[in-house]
Amino acid sequence: MNVHAKTAMDSPAQGRVVTKAVIAAAERLGLNAARTADILGVSAPTVSRMKRLDFLLEPGAKSFELAVLLIRVFRSLDAIAGGDEVVAKNWLRNHNVALNAVPADKLTTITGLIDVLSYLDARRAPV
């Protein structure tokens, strides 16, 4: 008996899942299309097409990888805020002493996105 288990989704399925997840995360974080576009390195019209699923992020593309990082930011912040979107949005929009910046402003650069994610991951699961 030859049984082949598929261990990973195919690329279009991955693109669809990540596209839907990043749009949902951005909306729950209160990020508008322009800010989401800046974070992902795509245009605002592309973000609009993503919302309609007329454009899917492609695994391996820079925008796909940035989307995964933004999803991780959302998941960490959501866990810390206990699912309270108001708390998460307020945290994102107010100056953070440890980051020395407004977290939402840092998300538009790769290093800033990593800084915010590292900060949240460190606060979420202290060892």
Automatic annotation (TrEMBL):
One Pfam family, short name: Xre_MbcA_ParS_C
A single MF term (Gene Ontology): DNA binding
Domain of life: Bacteria
Domain Antitoxin Xre/MbcA/ParS-like toxin-binding: start-end pairs: 76-124
Positions of the Antitoxin Xre-like helix-turn-helix domain: 10-72
Protein name: DUF2384 domain-containing protein
Biological source species: Rhizobium rhizogenes (Agrobacterium rhizogenes)
